[in-house]
Amino acid sequence: MFSIVEHETLAPQVHRMSVKAPIIAQKCKPGQFVILIVDERGERVPFTVSGWDPEAGTVDFVYVEVGDTTRQLGAMEVGDSLAHFVGPLGLPAQIDHYGHVLTVVSGYGVSAIVPILKALKERDNRITTILQAPDPQTAFGREPLAAVSDRLILAAGTQGENAATSATLPIRELLAEHPRKSIDRVVLMCSICLMRVVSEMTRPYDIKTMVHLTPLMVDGTGMCGACRLTVSGANRFACVHGPEFDGHKVQGWDVLMARRCTYADDSLLQQGFQCRGCSQW
Ligand SMILES: Cc1cc2nc3c(=O)[nH]c(=O)nc-3n(C[C@H](O)[C@H](O)[C@H](O)COP(=O)(O)OP(=O)(O)OC[C@H]3O[C@@H](n4cnc5c(N)ncnc54)[C@H](O)[C@@H]3O)c2cc1C
Ligand code: FES
């Protein structure tokens, strides 16, 4: 059993949980994730690690309440235990000295990106972060983001009404100044729609653009094929080959988006699919 040592609410339906898991805390790297099961009848659900403390033996993640398991998590208290907590899973994010890194985050990505940005800062990168949120009031996690960014831009739009548009405005302005004020790398941990849009925006400039893809996962170890996607014509599993991928090499975004939303709304699978504002991701 894995005990919950901290549990706090960051915004409506958004929480941070800290779990005692000493072995995972020793091994975690930025960009990796865990899979937990709440109780013996529970489902396996993945969460990106947003922090860890090897000395205290704790692992943190931030989650959004969207369905049964995340609501069940929301009702748990400090001192309660999770039946299973497995990790770290997935490949760590690529970290090197690139120069100026532009990052775009939304939803739980606001917190889950922090270890990646911290590691990029340690390699002397200059970081511009765009935080996409439905509105300024519900934009959580600004302070930790600001601490690892040289510049933080809040892009707040109305949820469901072209929320992605507001993040694309500052991106367009920054791209207009490239290469005079160069952008050397882009890292995206936001809604799948926004990751797709930004990847297309940076493609003509040939700026390496890394996306953090989170298709539905079952085992998280490359065995079930649930998280399959196509990258440069080859089959890849997000759980073992990712979750970070080169956004310019990802193929079949439509399929990814439709599969991601399979349980959200059947109509998303029909032709003429229209985004209904899943920018919470
Ligand atoms: C590698 C990885 C890392 C993730 N990291 C985080 C994280 O740090 N914080 C966080 O809040 N969530 C994260 N997710 C998404 C999280 O796993 C789902 O929100 C969770 O499984 C939903 O479970 P549920 O039973 O509450 O909802 P369900 O009833 O299973 O689903 C409710 C809604 O959530 C959608 N959903 C389910 N799974 C996913 C998914 N994998 N990606 C996107 N939408 C999904 C469904 O389509 C549906 O609309 C991650 C997913 C992956 C694959
Ligand atoms: S979750 Fe089963 S292969 Fe990735």
Write the layout of secondary structure elements.
Layout (H helix, E strand, L loop, with lengths): L1 E10 L2 E7 L1 H6 L5 E5 L7 E9 L4 E7 L3 H7 L6 E2 L1 E6 L10 E6 L3 H4 L1 H9 L3 E8 L8 H6 L3 E6 L6 H14 L8 E5 L2 H11 L6 E4 L15 E4 L2 E4 H4 L2 E3 L3 E2 L1 H8 L21
Parallel strand pairs: 8-9, 8-11, 9-10, 11-12
Antiparallel strand pairs: 1-2, 1-6, 2-5, 3-4, 3-7, 4-5, 12-15, 13-14, 13-16
Helix pairs in contact: 6-7
Question: How do you describe this structure in short?
Answer:
A hairpin with a 2-residue loop joins strand 13 (228-231) and strand 14 (234-237). The chain has 281 residues and is an alpha+beta fold.
Top-tier CATH class of the largest domain: Alpha Beta
Give me the number of helical elements.
9
- Spell the H/E element sequence: EEHEEEHEEEHHEHEHEHEEEHEEH
Uncertain spans, ≥5 residues at pLDDT below 50? 265-273
Q: What percent of the residues sit in helical stretches (DSSP H or I)? A: 10-25%
Strand order across the largest sheet = 6-1-2-5-4-3-7
Shape: globular
| Count of domains | 2
CATH topology of the largest domain: Rossmann fold
The share of residues in extended strands comes to 25-35%
What value does the average pLDDT take? 89
